[in-house]
Amino acid sequence: MTASSTVTIEVRLPPQQAEAAVYEAFNRAGLRDVSGGGGAMRGTAATSWLSWGETVTATIGHGPQGAVVQLHSASTLVTTLVDWGKNKKNVEGVLARLRELAPVV
Questions:
Q1: Span 17-27, average pLDDT
Q2: How far apart (Å, rounded) are the C-alpha atoms in residues 19 and 15?
Q3: What is the pTM of this model?
Q4: Fold that domain 4-101 belongs to in CATH
């Protein structure tokens, strides 16, 4: 199983605005090839001496107080067993940028 990290949060924005905020957070976090729409987002983290890169995804849906956002980062190389904290760092980086853009519940 590929090394990964996932976090789910809720923001006080309608899902469409939350999706725009997540898109901006992906860009601010330095992810490349960011694309998405319809409640889903995808970007990639560059390769480094620690990893062969990671794929970061987000799903945005309706929540009780706004929008529920699930952020997930997984190593691109499926045989990766240890990610040296890169996936957690990717998720935390996007989350930090999202907190600058949207009120998190």
A1: 98
A2: 6
A3: 0.93
A4: TATA-Binding Protein (3.30.310)
